[in-house]
Amino acid sequence: MELGDYVWKPENFILCPRILENLQELRDRGYLLAVITNQGGIAKGIYTHEDVNSTLNHMVSLCREAGIEFVEVMYSPHHDTVGESISRKPDSLMFERILYKHNIDPQKSFMIGDKERDIIPAEKLGMTGFLIEKNVDIEYLLAKIPA
Q1: How far apart are CA 121 and CA 123, in angstroms?
Q2: Are the C-beta atoms of residues 47 and 90 closer than 8 Å to each other?
Q3: Domain encompassing residue 76
Q4: Mean pLDDT for the chain?
Q5: Using one digit for the tens of pLDDT, what is the confidence trace for 126-136?
Q6: Distance (Å, whole) CA 128 – CA 125
Q7: How many other CB atoms sit within 10 Å of the CB of residue 5?
Q8: DSSP per-residue string spanning 7-58
Q9: Secondary structure of 108-125 in the HEC alphabet?
Q10: Element (H, E) at 131
């Protein structure tokens, strides 16, 4: 059983039905794909780094089977109830690292997230932010994202 918003076991991780096709479309348009996620359950003692890595590796494997590669998969293990960190969203350190490491132009980039704290750091850095409902496909956004 998972708690609240936390999914830390690969067997409980489920991709949205059309997300692989949506990511393939973005890849085919030439976008580099990255995952940036807060994993505050580590700081709270709910799960471990190993749990997160196992689940993220499962996600990467599912995507790789569909020909989708991520340039980075990065997470922050911190939570603001346990201590502050500039790596945790809504701060922008994880974004800055990926932009710098891969020489990505933020003006030609975007962030899709299901919480306002996902969008804040992206927009701070000049990226376009798309706030979506939790656990939905992003197909409807493809028309809003430059080809």
Answers
A1: 6
A2: no
A3: 10-137
A4: 93
A5: 999 999 998 88
A6: 9
A7: 11
A8: --SGGG----TTHHHHHHHHHHTT---EEEEE-TTTTTTSS-HHHHHHHHHH
A9: HCEEEECCHHHHHHHHHC
A10: strand 128-131
Query: Is 3 a domain residue?
Result: no
Both tokens of 103, joined, read 């020489």
Q: Is residue 145 part of a domain?
A: no
Read off the CATH number of the domain in which 62 is found. 3.40.50.1000
Q: What is the pTM of this model?
A: 0.91
Cβ–Cβ < 8 Å for 34, 71: yes
CA–CA distance, 96 with 125 (Å, rounded to integer): 8
Q: Are 114 and 131 in contact (CB under 8 A)?
A: yes
User: For 25-57, what is each residue's pLDDT tens digit?
Assistant: 999 999 999 999 999 999 999 999 999 999 999
Which residue matches tokens 């340039």? 71
The set of residues, in sequence order, having a beta carbon less than 8 Å from that of 94 and lying 6+ positions away, is 36, 74, 75, 76, 87, 121
Question: Letter for the amino acid at 136?
Answer: V
Residue-wise pLDDT for 85-101, tens only, equals: 888 999 999 999 999 99
Q: Does residue 118 carry a pLDDT above 50?
A: yes
Check residue 6 and give its pLDDT: 82
